[in-house]
Amino acid sequence: MLLPIHAQAQERLVDGAGGALAGVLVAGPIGAVAGGIIGYAAGPNIARGMGLKGHKVRHQRHHRTYRR
């Protein structure tokens, strides 16, 4: 039951670390802090937008109503 929560938290940490690494390369220590925060908060959405992580597909059932 806790496995999906753990996996999601781990992905956020990886996104935060990637943001921090990118921030350090661009703006040094201050960029590392800012990049880490942005990567943690927005990383999953950024990765989905870039096509790096799969989109969650929600299946919907369509019910047809027939009238006489």
Can you walk me through this structure?
- The chain has 68 residues and is mostly helical.
- It has one domain.
- It contains 1 helix and no strands.
- It has one helix spanning 3-49.
- The chain is elongated, with a radius of gyration of 19 Å.
- The relative contact order is 0.13.
Give the structure's gist in a few sentences:
The chain is an all-alpha fold and 68 residues long. The protein contains 1 helix and no strands.
Indicate the structural class: mainly alpha
Count of spatially separate domains? 1
Roughly what percent helix?
Answer: 55-70%
Multimer state: single chain
How large is the share of residues in beta strands? under 5%
Instruction: Give the mean pLDDT.
Output: 80
Q: Could you tell me how far the N terminus lies from the C terminus, measured between alpha carbons in angstroms?
A: 47 Å
SSE sequence, one letter per element: H
Radius of gyration: 19 Å
| Number of separate helices | 1
Outline the low-pLDDT stretches: none
**Backbone shape:** elongated
Helices and strands, with pairings:
Blueprint lengths: L2 H47 L19
Summary keywords:
mainly alpha, 0% strand
